[in-house]
Amino acid sequence: MSPIARPIVHDPIRRGGPERLVLALGSNLGDRHAVLGAAVERIRAIPGVFVRAVSPFVESVAVRTTGPDTDAPPYLNGVLVGHTYLEPHRLLDATVAIEDELGRVRTERWGDRTIDIDVIEVGSRRLADARLTLPHPRAAERSFVLGPWLAVEPDARLTGAGPVAELLARLETGTGA
Ligand SMILES: Nc1ncnc2c1ncn2[C@@H]1O[C@H](COP(=O)(O)OP(=O)(O)OP(=O)(O)O)[C@@H](O)[C@H]1O
Ligand SMILES: Nc1nc2c(c(=O)[nH]1)N=C(CO)CN2
């Protein structure tokens, strides 16, 4: 079809094709399995978001601003991979709304929470503004993100940082950041 004959398609969400999406989920308060399951269902229901795989949920020691804290309630963490047509800030609007619906209370930084949804990557976009940084700036340092991610995407690469398997191995051998 010549470019002139091409029909004009108005994409109400975003022009262009879908982009790869990686989200990380965490919960250390309440019925963690139920909350993470509810979050996954709500993410599946976001128009323009398509979920391809959800990792097993794994337990991890809570990391505070002061470091790992075995006295804090442990987290369940998981990673979801898929595709999205949403512009990243609209995606963040949707994930923040889900956090609010599921009872997230925002108190201290890295405090206990019923649900946390972090946007790890949207395609290979790199951006940093007042609301959103992509890729997520702390993903490469978090085994509770890299481990579940690797479980669903063995060849995964984190934009600007390299293969997830290598990043995780470095953390586990103590040679990471
Ligand atoms: N990639 C991202 N994913 C999610 N939120 C982000 C991202 N980049 C920036 N933010 C901003 O961070 C704000 C605080 O998010 P949140 O309270 O979930 O942080 P946190 O989970 O405590 O810490 P961390 O960002 O280290 O995971 C959000 O309101 C959002 O505007
Ligand atoms: N184990 C664990 N610790 C955390 C987590 C998390 O998801 N899992 N999220 C945090 C802020 O996003 C801070 N600390």
From TrEMBL:
Keyword Repeat: no
Reaction(s) catalysed by this chain's protein: 6-hydroxymethyl-7,8-dihydropterin + ATP = (7,8-dihydropterin-6-yl)methyl diphosphate + AMP + H(+)
Protein name, as recorded: 2-amino-4-hydroxy-6-hydroxymethyldihydropteridine diphosphokinase
Chain coiled-coil ranges: none
NCBIfam families named among the record's database cross-references: folK
Organism: Labedella populi
SUPFAM superfamilies: 6-hydroxymethyl-7,8-dihydropterin pyrophosphokinase, HPPK
Transmembrane segments: none
Keywords tagged on the record: ATP-binding, Folate biosynthesis, Kinase, Nucleotide-binding, Transferase
One GO process term, biological-process aspect: tetrahydrofolate biosynthetic process
Gene: folK
Record carries keyword Transferase: yes
EC number: 2.7.6.3
Top-rank taxon: Bacteria
Span of domain 7,8-dihydro-6-hydroxymethylpterin-pyrophosphokinase: 22-154
InterPro entries: Hppk, Hppk_sf
GO molecular function (one): kinase activity
Pathway: Cofactor biosynthesis; tetrahydrofolate biosynthesis; 2-amino-4-hydroxy-6-hydroxymethyl-7,8-dihydropteridine diphosphate from 7,8-dihydroneopterin triphosphate: step 4/4
